[in-house]
Description:
Elements: H1 15-31, H2 39-59, H3 64-81, H4 88-120, E1 123-126, E2 133-136, H5 148-172, H6 179-185, H7 190-202, H8 220-232, H9 237-240, H10 255-276, H11 278-283, H12 297-308, H13 314-329, H14 331-338, H15 346-358, H16 363-374, H17 383-395, H18 404-410, H19 414-425, H20 437-440, H21 475-480, E3 498-500, E4 506-508, H22 509-519, E5 536-537, H23 539-549, H24 567-575
Antiparallel strand pairs: 1-2, 3-4, 3-5
Helix pairs in contact: 1-3, 2-3, 2-4, 3-4, 3-5, 4-5, 4-7, 5-7, 5-8, 6-8, 7-8, 7-10, 10-12, 10-13, 12-15, 15-17, 17-19
Amino acid sequence: RHQSSQPIGKAHPLLPSCGQHCRLHLRDLIRRPSEPLPSEAAAAIGVLAVQCVLAAAEAGLASVAAAELLCEGLAAAAVILAVEGHQANEVVKVLQPLAAAMDGFAVDIFSTFWRLDDIVRPRWVFLPHGQGGYVKHPEETGPFQKHAKDLRLYQALQGVCIWILALIVRAVGYSQFTAFCLWDFCNEDVLQALVFAKGALCFQQAGAAEAACVRVPHDLPELRNAILGALLGLGSQDVAFLRCEDAHPEANVDITVRNETLHHHRALLAAVAADTGVLDCLLAYPWATGFGDVSRLPALASVLASSVAAGFEPSMAQDVALFLQQIAGRSAELWGLLAPLAVAKRGFLRDCAQLAFAVPPAPDDSTSFFQTCLSDPAIMADPQALAALIVFAANAGCGPGADALTNTVSSLQPEVQHELLFRLKAWHGSVREGALAPWYVLLPEASSQGLPAPGEALHGTAAAQVPPRPGRSGLREMMLSPPPEFCCQLDGKLLVDPVRSPMGHVFERSVLAHALEASGGMCPMTGTPLALEACQRDPQLRGQIVKWFGPIGVDDGLGALGTCAQPALHRKLAMH
């Protein structure tokens, strides 16, 4: 009560003690979430959680104390939803200031991850056959080592992501947490949605050591599965057209404009996916284990295929190309995941054929893919699925030979071969030039027909003018070009925890700390002796930055829902 009653302006010095205060008083309750929770206890937890959110919003998430404090506060609020007979109205009270601070938290987390990646150097280790993966860090991030505190902050920020989304997922229900919920709560901002989803999915990866200073949700596998499903649904047409004025089913819309709107939305997703490095955590998800959900694998193939498909407008081409490079760099992991878990379904095979055009699999993975798909007898009665599998083979550089696919095509009944030939002629997707010719030889009717190369119509189309996205600029666009006065004078990146030296230079505190350590206490700008303690934090500058990247400031507090409080989500909470 003493900690949470302090004015928010004085909260920053209390962060470490408040975090310990939360741990001591909520430890047993959070470990036993099934026990009844009195209404007065729920109200007290809600008040404490609100104070943690507001304190972290003011101080920023560039320090271990602030990040861990926010984790504890969110965990405290989330426990209200984990007990029988919980009071959803107490959670709504926490969601109000949380929604107001979401933009700021997303920028803090993204900027801090951006800086820490070069220090903690996470290296992914992928287990075979969809068993998942985990992150390894260098020795200098171990306990009592040089960068131990940096890794602790890195893990605390991942904890913030999982606990923010745990609050929402538990509120609406695991099966009800859809892409709309994630998109809605993240203010329909791609960067914000992917930052929180990636942080949550990377938290406590299978096989990694538990982060000692961050609480782990008791329902972590269920939370991650729900978050994964929502993340993979962000590229759907329903989400892309959510705010379009012509989204009504009876609206008379030019199909070219509608397609380009969808392409633009998916290109933006691909660009932000490249920025955030979300691909690795998707490939490292434990798809084939008891904690995963292999039924979502076709959705992953669809997301990646749409990202590498042709048709994006020139302004997004470079960003999409970066994501394609990342996919190509993980080709072995991608096909090592898809091949043994492939399903003989039209949509999945079509998406894999598109992926194979951009990122061809290795011969062994292609063989495994054929065997897995052809082990399902249903594919023999589906010429469209067989056509997709043949295009996959062509794009993978595989011609007919002594393999299961060749034997299958050769043994088809004439009427099925006729339908298969028709499907290949009508194929609307990318195909390597001349790669289908050897497969046509297996179809008797093909030799007497002049067959055009499938997919030619998809290449070289002019991009239509995409209607501007309603609302304010996305966080990604703002972070790519922040005002110079809001950037660290050392690394040029957006300031999260600004400090000002006695000479007036402005630095990101963690960046300056590393620079002073490397230089033996010499100012990186002037070359004169400088101590970190002599550089005072600049709350006024941070306040200006917060106001710049979001219309909602910390001062809105409990009195306003703000633009990202999301009426739809709150209606669900009210019904719950």
